Amino acid sequence: MKRCVLSMLVLLASCAPTMTEPNNTEALAAQYGGQVRYVETNGITLRVVEAGQGPLVVLVHGWPESWYSWRHQLRPLANAGYHIVAPDMRGYGGSTLSEAIEDYNIRELTADVAGIVTALGEEHAVVIGHDWGAPIAWQSALLYPEIFQAVVGLSVPYGGRGAERPVNQLRQDPDDDFFYTRYFQEPGIAEAEFDADPRALIARLFTSRSPGTPTAAPEVTDPRASAGGWLPRLGEPIELPHWLSEADLNYYVGEFRGAGFRGGINYYRNGTRNWDLTAELAGKKITQPALFLAGELDIVNRGATQEQLLERMAPNFEDLRGVILQPGIGHRNQQQAPDQTNAVLIEFLNSL
Fold first, then answer.
1. Is-catalytic flag, 124?
2. Strands of 148-154's sheet, edge to edge?
3. With CB atoms counted within 10 Å of each terminal CB, which end of the chain scores lower, N or C?
């Protein structure tokens, strides 16, 4: 009988979800000066980590990340006199995992962020976004100018609404060069690859976007889409980036073992829908004070200079207060260069 009970316990343990324990998140939040709470917004629940008192600042993460991507900003920005809130966005971590692809369109995502402000009893906030969080921040400023008094984008600049309707092709042509955003379009494919090995995806992707960190040669070098998925095209790290510890990696991996990758990938599947839903933004400028901050080596901007980025962005803003490139820094600048990033953000916030 004892053996049967033990066998059953082992079976249950092996089948149980490996979601990060809430206490782990609470302990980590406390380590970085924050605390966990749950916020009802736009018909869903978001887990947020908050710190400090004062004017509200909402920090929006990108893919594939979480509130934890802003861990180095919590205490410094709070100490500077601000109420900092970093949510797990819809589809991530401890927040609602919506089922339908269309639930991740830009209208819903910006309403989630605007709803945080209202749920916290505030009327105004500054919104700051990195990676996918940057488009959400830019669009939040456009769609909710009465709520968001200023905006900062990290990594992804705002170049205005596209003149032509984008078309999301469900499948790549097998003979076309592989590109990850096209690979993401067919439901079920990319998330199955990543869910099977979250550690490989996070470690390889974070390392590949951190210039100077050594990686092994990729297993797949054939550029054609037919040669396979994304993981074997990303070299395995020989060592982790200096800014990403094993403990950091373990937390990210635990979060995605729990939530899976589907929600975050669904953001990429709404390009056409987002364009259709925001027709009123054609020709509209961001009127609030704004700032753009990116690593000079961030692959997103393809080597563009400060002058080129400013030329691209300036026509779409009325009060663009800076385009700043951080020398020697890659894609995840708020994690790779937190002190420098914090100094820039605090200077901007204090100027408002």
1. no
2. 35-41, 44-51, 83-87, 56-60, 125-130, 148-154, 290-295, 320-326
3. N
